[in-house]
């Protein structure tokens, strides 16, 4: 396959998805019917394009980056980092990746001392370190999942690795103070894997999410090395009414090294620290710090068995 075929195919796919195809209603004789007169159409267009004093107008009137274009670039970056090993193709694709990022960066507001080219260059210098960290994540998955058959299987099929590949890319851009693009990337990964990791979250080496569906990792979460979590885990923030006052503050927990968190556990709060080597059982609710080496389990449910009530016994008998 030529060096640009994957990129071009992804662009074409995104362009198809970028908006619904215009559908022209037809009359029985095949002629296009007029549903609106000119005045009605102009009124609707005027209302939709007006830059009023509301949140959506403020967002749209300054120009909005096309999420489909961000998704295309994200897939290009993910595939290049995970799979591309041909030297000649890399010599062509790395500059292409940088140029594509610079174009996207030109559509958002960057810090005063940054330019699209400077950030794009800084990012591509991180490609090899990102690949190295992802290789450690693959090792963690292989060691942590007896069902895994090979590194290849994990690299191409595990949703956690796909989500982490996007996160590692988005996190680097987040650290470069790039707005909007990292969040589009993380929500793209969320939509395809069911794993919701904010690009601001700091995640150490050898990280493994087993299964993964329903995992939430909040913006200010800090995760150490060799941490393993299972499906449905939430590393979140307590819900408070005054959200704007909390921006920029640590609101999500810290998980230290060598921690395992089982399915359905909820851990909340910026002051909450899960100590090194702890094991957090399934379906627990934690809002206070846990000392190193702790094992936390939920109280087993109490199953009450009552004598049969004649009034209900007949209702529970069905002919199957």
Fold and architecture overview:
This protein is an alpha/beta fold. It folds into 2 domains: 149 residues, serine acetyltransferase, domain 1, CATH 1.10.3130; 99 residues, Hexapeptide repeat proteins (UDP N-Acetylglucosamine Acyltransferase, domain 1), CATH 2.160.10.10. It contains 11 helices and 14 strands. α1 packs antiparallel against α4 and α4 packs antiparallel against α5. The protein starts with a helix and ends in a 7-residue tail after the last helix. About 3% of the residues have low confidence.
- Name the average pLDDT: 88
Binned, the helix content reads 40-55%
CATH 2nd-level architecture of the largest domain? Orthogonal Bundle
Shape by Cα distribution: globular
CATH topology call of the largest domain? serine acetyltransferase, domain 1
Query: In CATH, what is the class of the largest domain?
Result: Mainly Alpha
The CATH homology group name of the largest domain: serine acetyltransferase, domain 1
Query: Order of strands across the widest beta sheet?
Result: 1-4-7-10-13
- Uncertain regions spanning at least 5 consecutive residues: 13-23
Quaternary organisation of the protein chains: single chain
Q: What's the number of helices?
A: 11
Number of DSSP E strands: 14
Structural Rg: 25 Å
The computed structural class is alpha/beta
Number of domains: 2
Beta content: 5-15%
- Cα(first) to Cα(last) distance is 58 Å
Helices and strands, in order, run as HHHHHHHHHHEEEEEEEEEEEEEEH
Largest sheet descriptor: 5 strands, parallel
């Amino acid at each position: 396959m030529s060096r640009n075929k994957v990129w071009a195919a992804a662009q074409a796919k995104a362009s198809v998805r970028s908006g619904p195809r215009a559908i022209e209603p037809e009359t029985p004789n095949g002629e296009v019917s007029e549903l609106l007169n000119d005045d009605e159409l102009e009124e609707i267009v005027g209302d939709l394009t007006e830059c009023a004093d509301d949140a959506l107008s403020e967002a749209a009137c300054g120009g909005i980056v096309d999420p489909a274009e961000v998704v295309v670039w994200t897939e290009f970056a993910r595939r290049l980092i995970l799979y591309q090993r041909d030297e000649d193709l890399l010599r062509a694709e790395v500059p292409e990746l940088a140029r594509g990022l610079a174009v996207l960066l030109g559509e958002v507001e960057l810090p005063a001392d940054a330019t699209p080219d400077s950030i794009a260059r800084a990012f591509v210098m991180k490609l090899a370190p990102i690949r190295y960290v992802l290789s450690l994540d693959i090792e963690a998955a292989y060691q942590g999942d007896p069902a895994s058959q090979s590194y290849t299987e994990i690299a191409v099929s595990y949703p956690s690795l796909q989500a982490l590949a996007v996160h590692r890319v988005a996190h680097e851009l987040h650290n470069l103070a790039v707005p909007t693009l990292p969040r589009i990337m993380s929500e793209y990964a969320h939509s395809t894997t069911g794993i919701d990791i904010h690009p601001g979250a700091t995640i150490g080496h050898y990280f493994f999410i087993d299964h993964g569906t329903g995992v939430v990792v909040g913006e200010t979460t800090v995760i150490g090395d060799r941490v393993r979590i299972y499906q449905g885990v939430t590393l979140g923030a307590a819900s408070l009414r005054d959200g704007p006052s909390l921006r920029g503050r640590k609101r999500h927990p810290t998980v230290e090294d060598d921690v395992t968190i089982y399915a359905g556990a909820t851990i909340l709060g910026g002051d909450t620290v899960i100590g090194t080597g702890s094991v957090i059982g399934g379906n627990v609710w934690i809002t206070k710090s846990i000392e190193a080496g702790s094992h936390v389990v939920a109280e087993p449910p109490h199953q009450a068995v009552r004598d049969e009530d004649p009034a209900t016994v007949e209702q529970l008998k069905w002919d199957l």
